[in-house]
């Protein structure tokens, strides 16, 4: 058993007969009244997001997890197949349990959180950023650079990202996975 002072991003807890992963939290100590923790949680089984407020000192039932490196193999319908990079065992996860499945390409190595009690995979954590190739985008209009102008671009995985006007088809770009935003162009 843990309490509200142990809450951090990535912590998995049992709440309302389900397992949730904390995605955001904020400790609040108002001038008047007791302190509390405002959280945003995502269900690892359904993918639904829930906001909840815990009072300070509230006991929470944390789930012990282990992290393992898995390589993304392929997608089949709503299932994503992964292979453990150490012992080559394979697992499959529902798309709802993945945070940014639209930014995952085949061969990508991700971190999978596994419940130590029943060895069931809980969620997939992407690397901080991924490098993807731009498959289609409109050409930038010369002279349209008075402000930080952007245009939509589709990357090799099918995700759409807003990029600066100087990005062309075939360019490789680094995308921040947490927000799904353009970070920089990658030179080879």
TrEMBL record:
PROSITE patterns xref list: EFP
GO cellular component, one term: cytosol
Domain Elongation factor P C-terminal as annotated: residue spans: 130-185
Keywords, ordered alphabetically: Cytoplasm, Elongation factor, Protein biosynthesis
GO biological process: peptide biosynthetic process
Residues annotated as domain Translation elongation factor P/YeiP central: 67-122
GO MF annotation: an example: translation elongation factor activity
SMART domains given in the database record: EFP, Elong-fact-P_C
Pathway: Protein biosynthesis; polypeptide chain elongation
Purpose: Involved in peptide bond synthesis. Stimulates efficient translation and peptide-bond synthesis on native or reconstituted 70S ribosomes in vitro. Probably functions indirectly by altering the affinity of the ribosome for aminoacyl-tRNA, thus increasing their reactivity as acceptors for peptidyl transferase.
Family: Belongs to the elongation factor P family.
Protein name listed in UniProt: Elongation factor P
Species lineage: Bacteria, Pseudomonadati, Bacteroidota, Flavobacteriia, Flavobacteriales
Name of the encoding gene: efp
